[in-house]
Amino acid sequence: MAGHPQPDRGAEWPRGGIARVGDASAGAGLAVMDDVIGSPKTEALRQLYWRSEILQVMYWLRGEGLGDLVDPALIERFLGVDAAIGVTYLDRLVDEGYLERWPEGYVLSSLGLEEGATEFGLSFAELTRPAHGDCSPSCWCHLSVEEAEACHADRTRHQP
């Protein structure tokens, strides 16, 4: 990415380089967008659906250190939207301020990063919430090591 202008994100942005199809160890099939199960059939809902899906996958790729920049082929691999169609959604997200277009691909803007985090959090809320008997994020055990040890001892004391 040397030689290309950097978005104003502070010292930590961008990092990880370009995410490419070959970097992915898993992904969705190469189905066209209308064949994706659960994809809305009206244009307005389809735009919202793909905005959410694209922002989530870009947020996830960034969080996993797989790269900040994506190209249409990577979106095709992970989301199953044909790259030729996916680029129209990527360009729309640029127009809406969620992404920035770079010569190598697309990168999340500040707005896209914020919205991607929200969408990702909402999608996985059921999987990331505490299970029965686990501490919640507001538990007093997060205040110090001593409190964490006391909480753990209390929880293990009550287990069968």
CATH-derived topology of the largest domain:
Arc Repressor Mutant, subunit A
Distance between the termini: 55 Å
H and E order: HEHHEEHHH
* Number of extended strands: 3
Major beta sheet, strand line-up:
1-3-2
CATH superfamily membership of the largest domain: Winged helix-like DNA-binding domain superfamily/Winged helix DNA-binding domain
The CATH class of the largest domain is Mainly Alpha
Name the assembly state.
single chain
Taking pLDDT < 50 over at least 5 consecutive residues as the criterion, the unreliable ranges are: 1-16, 20-35
Q: Structural class given helices, strands, pairing?
A: mainly alpha
**Fraction of residues in H or I helices:** 40-55%
Main sheet: strands, sense, barrel:
3 strands, antiparallel
Structural Rg: 20 Å
Number of helices: 6
Mean pLDDT: 75
Q: What is the CATH architecture assignment of the largest domain?
A: Orthogonal Bundle
In short:
With 160 residues, the chain is mostly helical. The protein is built from six helices and three strands, in the order H-E-H-H-E-E-H-H-H. Strands 1-3-2 form a three-stranded antiparallel sheet.
Overview of the structural elements:
The chain is mainly alpha-helical. The protein folds into two domains: about 20-130, Orthogonal Bundle (Arc Repressor Mutant, subunit A), CATH 1.10.10; about 130-160. It is built from six helices and three strands, in the order αβααββααα. The chain has helices at about 45-65, 70-80, 85-95, 110-125, 125-130, 145-155, and strands at about 70, 100, 105-110. A three-stranded antiparallel sheet has the order 1-3-2. Residues about 1-15 and about 20-35 have low confidence and may be disordered.
